[in-house]
Amino acid sequence: MCSEDGRISFTEFNDELDDFVQKSKALGDHWEDCEAVRDNSNNNYLKYEYHVTYSPSYGVPVLYFITYTQDGCPLGLQDVWSAIPHVYQQRLQAERWTFLTQQEHPFLGKPFFQLHPCHTADMMKCILMRASDESSLTTRRKTNYLVTWLSSVGPVVGLELPLAYGT
Asked: What keywords appear on the UniProt entry (predicted)?
């Protein structure tokens, strides 16, 4: 599954990403990169485009995204920081530059935002250890690293998975 330090191999990542896409198709999701969500601060809609890539340096997945206003203008870093839900703002203030940063997309070469991968392995190690402890009390089941990770970090930037992914 993943190593002791919470990392995942490139092969496992690709296999789980394929499974994720297949499950999306089976659930009837419209498999597109974009999702519109309401920004309640000024009653506008924001359009998010999400990309998941693998970081060979950190050995973990990375969530890249870009956000546009209704008229197609990309949001700047300050606006993206202020669009982060209130429950994550304290962490954002404490770890601004290692939490959510602007970075060149590794394949597109365009500026995107990313949830920085430096804490991902530690976070996943804790989550997977706890899941392993809980599943050993009942029945042993495989934890899908990618779904677990995405459902943990996605809500920070407006991406929430349907509960059906967890079953």
From this structure: Autophagy, Transferase, Ubl conjugation pathway
